[in-house]
Every structure is written in structure tokens, then in C-alpha cells.
């Protein structure tokens, strides 16, 4: 009879030396704009390196914000302005023999002053009878950015004029659109989308037709103007989009057009045929007493008035 010898016991697990501590977690890289993964400015690439979220998702998010009221432009420009760029050579940047020049505080202060001034203007407009339009807000914002650019030329430190210049260009373009015509100033009231109206009687004609963004068609050809006690007076107020008005074949009309940006064709007369709407109010009257008095105020788009 044989007996098996039990295996020898395992050696004890070595205890860690006294005072040993686990290695610290890897430090997260500082938030910097990327110099390698970039399309415009490297903001999305820098956010991806900092958060670990893919760059494509950040870019899709900014694009979505652009279509959601245009806030993507503002958010991206602010991040571009406030996020410093990653050093070209991190080892050289960290060397004590050549410390980088401190970043200029002017861009950050400019953005802060811009937000404060616009906020105070909105507060005053909210609590008083003053009703400034988009032109006032955009003009104030552009003035603050211009002062920031001018101040940056006399303040030491690494300059960051690029984002401020981009913000100034964006504000200038928005100010140009807002100043194009009075119709553009009514953009928020007119809504978005194409609109079409075809009243059949003189009493059904509205005093005002409004459109914010989109084409507006007004067909008055079905209105009987043979027995009117007073002229039909109506105003078309359009912000961004074409305006097409059709008047009755037999009606004498008086048309006034205020067109910011776009061509005008009023009853066959354009800017080269005696009608000059681009310079302000310019009436055109038929061969008798006006039965329809039409005023068209368009910010950006073509205006056409024809007979049908």
C-alpha cells in the first residue's frame, strides 16, 4: 500500500515594502487648442484630447448648435478666444530657460465687457420704454470688439487678435443684414417659412402682411375694384425672401418700395426703367386715381409687382 506525499505549502506572498504607495492616476492634459487635429482653430480637437470624446462628435455638436439659432458660432468663437493653443514643442515650452510670454488679457476682458454691456442694454430695454432693435445691439457689440482690438495693440503679452477679428467680421455681417431695410428689423415678428395670401374681396385685404424669413406671395387679382368707396391700402413687410404681389388688371395702383438688398420690378419698370426703389420711397402711379395703394418694405430679396 502506497501513500502519496502531500505537496509542499506555497511560499507566503511577499508583503509590499513599508511606505510604498500606489502610483498616482495619470494627470489629465490641460485644456488647449490642438495644433494637429484641427479644421478651424483646433477647438474640437482640444476638447477631444481633454475629455476623451471623439473629435467628430464635438464637431457635429457645434454644427447642430449653428442650426439651433446660430449659438454654435458664438460658443465656438468664445472657446477659440479663451482656450490657449497647445505649445508646438512641450519640452521646449516647459524649459525654464525660455519661459513663454504671458497671454494678453485683452481678448478675455473684451468678451467680458461685451457680455456686460449687451446685458445692461437688454436690462434697460426691459425695464424702460426704450426699444432698441437688433441694429443697436449689434452696433454696441461691434464697438466693444473694435475697442478691444485697438487696446490690444498697446498692451503687452501674446496677442490673440485672430478670434476678435473673426468675431468682428461676424458682427459686421450681421449688422449689414440688420440694416438692410425696415423689413429685416421685423424679422422676429414675421416668423419663418413661405407665405401666400389671396383675398377675394376688398374687405378681406389686410392692412399689413408680414414675413420674417421666406418668400411672400400676395395675389390681389381676384379683388373687385369697380365699386370702391376708398382705395385699398396695404403694406407688405418682409425680412429675408422674395416678395411677389399681383394686382388686378384694371386697377390703378400706387406703389412705394423700400428695398434693402435685391432687385425690384414694379409693373414692368425696373431700376433702369424709371423706378428706383433701392434709394428709398419711390412712387409709381397708373393713369387715374389710385384704387390700390401698396407699400412694400423688404430687407433682403427681390420685389415684383405685376398685373394678373
Automatic annotation (TrEMBL):
Q: Where is the Phage shock protein PspC N-terminal domain?
A: 30-85
Cellular compartment(s): Cell membrane
Main location group: membrane
Q: Which intervals of the chain are annotated as region Disordered?
A: 1-38
- What is the superkingdom listed in this entry's lineage? Bacteria
Specify the protein name: Phage shock protein C (PspC) family protein
Q: Which intervals carry biased composition (Pro residues)? A: 1-28
Give start and end of each Cell wall-active antibiotics response LiaF-like C-terminal domain: 208-305
Keywords of the record, alphabetical order, are: Cell membrane, Membrane, Transmembrane, Transmembrane helix
Q: Mind naming one GO cellular-component term on file for this protein?
A: plasma membrane
Q: Could you tell me which InterPro entries the record lists for this protein?
A: LiaF-like_C, Phageshock_PspC_N, PspC
Give start-end ranges for the coiled-coil region(s): none
